[in-house]
Structures are given as structure tokens and as C-alpha cells.
Design a protein that fits this description.
Length: 790
């Protein structure tokens, strides 16, 4: 082993020497590259003499770099020597069988680089010189020729990679010359190599097919789509004993032929001649050839879209397409490896071609609905993760939401084409889910999701009147109790779907008890999962807004059912981890729903006062108890008592949203007195804890509501409230304060003049303090927008 070989080994094995010695080795290797001509001869000599793989690889890499970077520095004699030596290494005296694949690939890459630079002008016949003569050729030479074609495709010819203008021009030059000179011989070589080695050396036969697949897109299609090649390819695909890598390679070639760009009539003739339908018979084979089947179906569809209006070609293209569809459906339902996005795009295109679907097409649309149902089902492996969402469950939910987007687009397309068939499909799903205890969480969730999404495709009029099967499906939904109803994803989509079809109930009031039961029992607000319960509260509030007066006969029932929920809202441990992670709904929507019901003038005055007192008095008593208990200790912003006080104020605020000034001050003054008393209690919080920002924010929001409904009767409360809101407030607090002042001015005009005159000095004083402290702040916490508003 000489010094160069030692240096090369140190270059590739950095852990074998100290950094100083390795640096010397790298410098020695770089020095050997100084003279391109000397380097060329050195590398060719070592490639023939050295048995060390690392040395051989370094030499090939150095030759490749020299061609790419210093080709112009090589003399004609050097290049002549290089050509003959590379030809020898690739054919006459090939690398030994024990040589690793990466070494052979590197040799192929070097030859491909030289072809790119010199073919056909300076090196007119590299392919004829390298093309193995079968059956006498050495299998190593056949392998090397396949690697050369693959390397040339990767580095120059393939359009799958971005190319520079110079590279694109070189690719066109090489392709044009190959078409004129050697492509027919190469195609013949592929056929001979596959025929010869399919049994004795399947890997070598598969390598030949792989290179063929790469070149089909730009060679004459007749060279491969002919009476010799097509039977051979399908024999490899269909033969029961065919090695899997050989079957896959043959299928790849057929797919490349199918995808070959050409005019629609030529493509249709090609597809008919291929008879790909041979592979549709066996389910196992269909799964193995999923990519071929979906690609073939897409091309048949493209032909049909172009030629469908023509009598003969249109019927032929439709026949090919519909012949492939059952296999496409089977692939979508059973093959995880297939690109579902491409298949969904294909199915969407197929549905878009339908105007008045035939009976057969209606059947296919039913199969598409089944494909959608299967694809939107969650994996049962994540069932527990989705019930009580952890990181894995949330990720699965996000991924499924993304996967479902295109599927729902396809679903809407099917709904538009066959609305009655879609309703019948959903009906069968619901009937099965309700009658079978074996239908699992994922299947029930998918069925309800499809029913929910169907609501997006029908008019409000159809929902109100129960058009089609909706008059049967919606009542079935309202009374539904699934065996897996306690699971979070089922309960959530059930409530969303009930809400989606609420306008049907608005027109058919006999179903109101069913709706109330759905929201008020364990399927909704009383569901054991907090996420479901809170979402149920929000959706129930939306239902109340829609139905409102129609719910008056059920007021007692509703309030009795919500009694425990109301009490639980203000007594729960709000610092628990479960509640902190429960989502955007905070449960106060239950109070808003109650307020909407109690705020109706149709409620008898004495009943209204009784119900309202039953809600307000416990909340006020709880505030007083918390304040009394807190006098002896300071409250931190995150303490449990502060959080509880916030929840109480939120509940009061939400409750007040159902009332208006005309009712509170005009027709039902007793209601106004109760809200005024409640405000007095809430302001005690502000008096005792003016600096606790979360409480200050909630109280400010409550004051806005009280200004809206109490009118001028709020005036006695304002001096204390405004004074306390100015205590040590900062720029953002002052902006909130000024918004409240603005509301007072807009609502009461000059009636608040005296109050504003009294409070103005304090406002101006505090504003100047804020401006002097913050006006020139530039840190990350500076609230410049708030400052400018001042």
C-alpha cells in the first residue's frame, strides 16, 4: 500500500487517525488532483490495479469531478485514454462480482458524465460499444449497462428534476442522437435480457425493466408497446411463480406505457390494445398493482372526458373506465400504500363528468360513498387517545381533518349528482349503527359525520320541510342512542349534526322534546366528558336562540335539568388540569341560554322573578362569602378564589345577555332591581381588589352589559366603579376604561355630563402618568397602540 492509498483510507476513516494526520492526508489527496492529466492516468492505473474499494471509489469520484469541473483542461489523448479505459471497466474487464453496488453506480455516473459532454460529436458510438451482446455477454456487463442507463436518466435525461438551460439542451441533444442511432437496439436488448434472465437472475431482469420504464416517456412507443413486449410484461405480472420484484418492475413498465403522452384517440387505441383488465380478476393481485390500476383508470377517464361526446370512441372509453372502477374502489378500501389523494382527485373528476347518471353509474356512486366512508374512519388503534385527547390523539385528529378535506369535496360532488342515493346511503348507515351493538366508535363517527356534511349540500328549505328522506332521517337522529355514545368523538359529532338540522325542528315542534333530551341528558350537557359537556352548552345556546319562544312550554323542564349544571359551574375546581385544557367553550353558554329563555316577555312576571332570583341570589351569596374569606389574605391573579370569582362574573354576564333595557326598566322593573343589586355585589370585588387584572377585565365587561340593560338606573353605581377602574391602571387598562366612557357618552349623551366633569381630573391625571412612564418605551412589552389611543 503506497502513500496515496494510505491517505485515501485516512480520508474515508476519520476515526482512525488524529486530526493533524488526517489533515495531512486530505492535503496529500488534493495535491494529487493538481494536474488533471496526471490525475487521469493515476486514477485509471489504480482502478485496474488496486483491490481496495475505498481507493477505487476515490479514483472514480476524482474522475467525475475532473469531467464536470476541468474537462477543458484534458487533452484529446487524455480523453481517448479515458474513453477506452471506461469502456474496458464497463464491459471487457468489468469490476469484479464482489464490487459493491455503490462502486458500480459511481462508474456508471462517470461514463454518463462523459456521454453528456461528448456524445455524439466526439464520442459517436458509446452505446453500441457498451451494449452487451446476448446471450453470450457477461451478466456483469448487462448489469453495468442497466446502471449506465439509469445514471444517464438521473443525471441528465429525466424531466422529474429541475434542469438548467444548458442541461436541458444537452438532454435534448443526447435523446435526439439516441433515437436516430441506438434506441431500437436498446429496446431489443431489454427484451432479450428480460427473457434470458427472468428465471436465472430475476434481479438482473428487473434492472433491465427499470431502465426501460425510465425511457418509455421519450422513445417511440411502438418499440415497447408491441406484440412481443406486451405479452412478456403481462406474463411476468400474471405468472403465479413470478418473483415479486420482477412483477413490480413489469407493472412499472406497463404503467409508463399507459402514461405515455399522446393524442386521445391514439391513447384510447393503446389502452384497448394493452388489455390491462387481465389484472382485475384477483383481489391479491389488484392490491399488488394498485399504482398501475389507478394510473390506468385515470388515463381512461382523460380519454372519456375528451372523446365522451363521440359515439364510438365515447362508448369505448367509458367501457374501459367502468371496467377499472371496481378495482379502484377495492384499492382505496384495502391498500394503505396507494396515494389516496391522487385517487380522490380521479374520483372527483369521474363524478364531475356525470350529468344524468345511468343505473350502472348510480351503483358506482354508491361504491364511491362507501370508499369515502372507509377513508374517513379513524384508526381504532387511537380510540383511547381520541376519547381523552392526549398529544397522540390531537395529532391524529389534526391529520384526519387534513385527510378529510378532499374526501368531503368528493362527497359534496356525489351529493349533487345523486342526492336521493346519498340520503339512502346515510339512512342505511344510521339504521345499522342503531340496530347493531357491533358497529364500533369509528364507524358511528363516520356515519354521523357524513350526515352532518350532507347538510352542507341541501337548501334550508329542504331541511325545514324534511325533503326526501330527511323527514325520516332527522327524527331518527334526534332519538338516537348509540352503543358507543359516551365516546368523545361520537358525542361531539352527534351534537353538531343535531344542531345542523335544527331548522327542521323549528318547523316541526313535535320534535322539541327529542331535541331537549339530546342536549340535556348524558348525550349533551350532562355528558361525563367535559369537552362534550361544554360544547353541548354552546350548541344548546344556539338552539335556544333559534327556537326561543317555542321552548316556553318546556321552561320548567329545562331549568330543572340544568339546576345541577349551574351549581357545578361555580363550585368546580377551575385550577384542575382537565379544565385548563378543555378548549374554547367555558360552560357559561348554559347561563346565556337560560337568560335568553328568562328574558322573553312571554314568561309570567312572577315566574320570571322567581327563576331569576333562584339564579342570581346563590351567585351573589357566593361572591360575598369569597370576599369575606379573602379579607384576611391577599389574592394572587392565579389563585383558586380569583378564578372562581371570574367564573361567577362570567356567568352573570352571560345570563344578562338575554335581557334588554325595555323589559328590565320598562315592563319588568323587578328584574332591573335584581340586576342592580347584583351589580352592587360585583362592584364590592372591584373595591376590595382593584389591582387584580383578571377580575378588573371581567367586571369591566359586566359593566358594559349593565349599561345596556339598566339604563339611567346604573348612574348611582358609576362613581365607585369608575374611580376603582382608575386605580393604578396601565395603558391597556386605560384603553378599556375609555371604551366604557365612550359607551356612556354614546348612550346617555349629556345626562352623564356631571359625572364626567367629576371624574375628568382623575382621568387626565392618570393619563399623564401613563404617558410619562410609557410614551418612549421601545421594549417588547411596550403597548404603543394603546399609548396612541390615549
Amino acid at each position: 500500500m503506497d502513500d496515496l492509498e494510505k491517505a485515501i483510507l485516512l480520508n474515508y476513516e476519520p476515526s482512525a487517525a488524529d486530526p493533524g494526520l488526517r489533515a495531512q492526508a486530505m492535503a496529500f489527496c488534493e495535491q494529487a488532483k493538481a494536474d488533471p492529466s496526471a490525475l487521469l492516468r493515476l486514477c485509471l492505473d489504480r482502478l485496474h490495479r488496486s483491490p481496495i474499494v475505498a481507493v477505487q471509489f476515490w479514483c472514480l469520484q476524482a474522475l467525475h469531478d475532473a469531467l464536470l469541473l476541468r474537462y477543458s483542461s484534458l487533452s484529446p489523448a487524455d480523453l481517448l485514454l479515458l474513453r477506452s479505459s471506461l469502456l474496458s471497466l464497463a464491459s471487457d474487464c468489468p469490476l469484479p462480482p464482489s464490487s459493491p453496488s455503490f462502486l458500480r453506480n459511481k462508474l456508471a455516473q462517470v461514463i454518463a458524465a462523459l456521454i453528456r459532454l461528448e456524445y455524439p460529436t466526439l464520442w459517436p458510438s458509446p452505446f453500441h460499444q457498451l451494449l452487451p451482446c446476448l446471450p453470450s455477454a457477461d451478466p456483469l456487463a448487462v448489469d453495468m449497462f442497466a446502471r449506465l442507463l439509469a445514471a444517464l436518466d438521473d443525471d441528465l435525461l429525466s424531466q422529474d428534476y429541475p434542469r438548467s438551460p444548458d442541461e436541458a439542451a444537452a438532454a435534448s441533444r443526447v435523446k435526439d442522437s439516441m433515437r436516430l442511432q441506438c434506441v431500437p437496439q436498446i429496446a431489443r436488448h431489454w427484451f432479450d435480457a428480460v427473457s434470458l434472465y427472468r428465471s436465472s437472475n430475476p434481479d438482473l431482469a428487473a434492472a433491465a425493466l427499470d431502465t426501460m420504464k425510465r425511457y418509455v416517456s421519450w422513445i417511440d412507443i411502438a418499440l415497447v408497446a408491441n406484440d412481443a413486449f406486451i405479452p412478456l410484461l403481462f406474463d411476468l405480472i400474471l405468472a403465479s411463480g413470478s418473483p415479486e420484484q420482477l412483477r413490480s418492475a413489469a407493472a412499472g413498465c406497463v404503467l409508463a406505457i399507459v402514461l405515455k403522452r399522446m393524442d386521445p384517440r391514439s391513447k384510447l387505441a393503446l389502452l384497448r390494445r394493452l388489455r390491462v383488465s387481465q389484472v382485475f380478476a384477483g383481489p391479491d393481485l389488484v392490491l399488488k398493482l394498485a399504482t398501475l390500476i389507478t394510473g390506468y383508470a385515470s388515463e381512461a377517464l382523460e380519454c372519456h372526458k375528451t372523446l365522451g361526446s363521440e359515439e364510438i370512441e365515447g362508448s369505448f372509453s367509458l367501457e374501459l373506465l367502468e371496467e377499472a372502477l371496481p378495482s379502484v374502489f377495492y384499492v382505496m378500501q384495502n391498500c394503505e400504500e396507494v396515494d389516496s389523494g391522487n385517487v380522490v382527485d380521479f374520483l372527483s373528476d369521474y363524478v364531475s363528468t356525470m350529468k344524468s347518471p345511468s343505473q350502472q353509474q348510480v351503483a358506482y356512486l354508491g361504491q364511491i360513498l362507501e370508499v369515502i366512508r372507509v377513508q374517513i374512519c379513524y384508526d381504532p388503534a387511537y380510540r383511547s387517545n381520541l376519547d381523552i385527547p392526549d398529544k397522540i390523539g390531537r395529532e391524529e385528529e389534526d391529520q384526519m381533518s387534513e385527510r378529510r378535506k378532499e374526501l368531503f369535496t368528493l362527497f359534496r360532488s356525489v351529493c349533487r349528482v345523486v342526492p336521493d342515493g346519498t340520503q339512502l346511503f346515510i339512512r342505511n348507515l344510521l339504521v345499522t349503527a342503531l340496530s347493531s351493538s357491533e358497529m364500533n366508535v369509528e364507524e358511528v363517527e363516520a356515519a354521523l359525520t357524513l350526515f352532518y356534511r350532507y347538510g352542507e349540500t341541501v337548501s334550508e328549505e329542504a331541511i325545514r320541510t324534511g325533503g326526501g328522506l330527511l323527514g325520516e332521517l332527522i327524527p331518527m337522529l334526534l332519538s338516537a342512542r348509540f352503543s358507543c355514545h359516551l365516546h368523545r368523538v361520537v358525542a361531539l359529532v352527534y351534537l353538531e349534526t343535531v344542531t345542523r338540522y335544527m331548522k327542521f325542528v323549528h318547523e316541526n315542534v313535535q320534535y322539541i322534546p327529542h331535541v331537549l333530551a339530546a342536549f340535556l341528558d348524558e348525550r349533551g350537557i350532562h355528558h361525563p366528558n367535559l369537552n362534550v359537556s361544554r360544547r353541548g352548552s354552546y350548541l344548546f345556546m344556539r338552539a335556544v336562540k333559534l327556537l326561543k319562544a317555542k321552548l316556553l312550554p318546556f321552561l320548567d323542564t329545562i331549568l330543572q335539568s340544568l339546576q345541577g349544571t349551574v351549581a357545578h359551574f361555580t363550585s368546580v375546581d377551575w385550577m384542575s388540569k382537565e379544565l385548563k385544557c378543555s378548549g374554547s367553550e367555558d360552560g357559561s353558554q348554559t347561563f346565556e341560554a337560560i337568560g335568553l329563555l328568562l328574558g322573553m316577555e312571554d314568561v309570567l312576571p312572577e315566574k320570571q322573578s322567581e327563576y331569576l332570583a333562584a339564579l342570581l341570589n346563590p351567585l351573589c351569596q357566593q361572591v360575598k362569602a369569597l370576599l369575606l374569606d379573602s379579607k384576611v389574605q391577599a389574592l394572587g391573579e392565579s389563585s383558586a378564589k380569583v378564578v372562581t370569582l371570574q367564573q361567577i362574573i362570567m356567568a352573570l354576564n352571560a345570563l344578562s345577555k338575554g335581557f334588554n333595557e325595555r323589559l328590565v326598566i320598562g315592563s319588568r322593573p323587578m328584574v332591573g332591581i335584581m340586576f342592580k343589586q347584583t351589580l352592587d355585589v360585583v362592584l364590592q370585588i372591584l373595591v376590595m381588589f382593584p389591582n387584580v387584572k383578571p377580575l378588573r377585565n371581567k367586571i369591566t365587561s359586566f359593566l358594559h352589559r349593565m349599561v345596556d340593560i339598566l339604563g339611567t338606573s346604573i348612574f348611582p353605581c358609576l362613581p365607585v366603579a369608575l374611580k376603582q377602574l382608575l386605580v393604578e391602571n396601565e395603558s391597556k387598562d386605560m384603553v378599556d376604561f375609555l371604551l366604557l366612557i365612550n359607551q356612556l357618552i354614546c348612550k346617555f349623551n349629556t345626562s352623564v355630563g356631571n359625572l364626567l366633569e367629576q371624574i375628568f381630573p382623575a382621568i387626565a391625571s392618570r393619563s399623564f402618568v401613563i404617558l410619562s412612564n410609557d410614551a418612549f418605551s421601545s421594549g417588547s412589552g411596550a403597548n404603543t397602540e394603546a399609548i396612541w389611543m390615549l
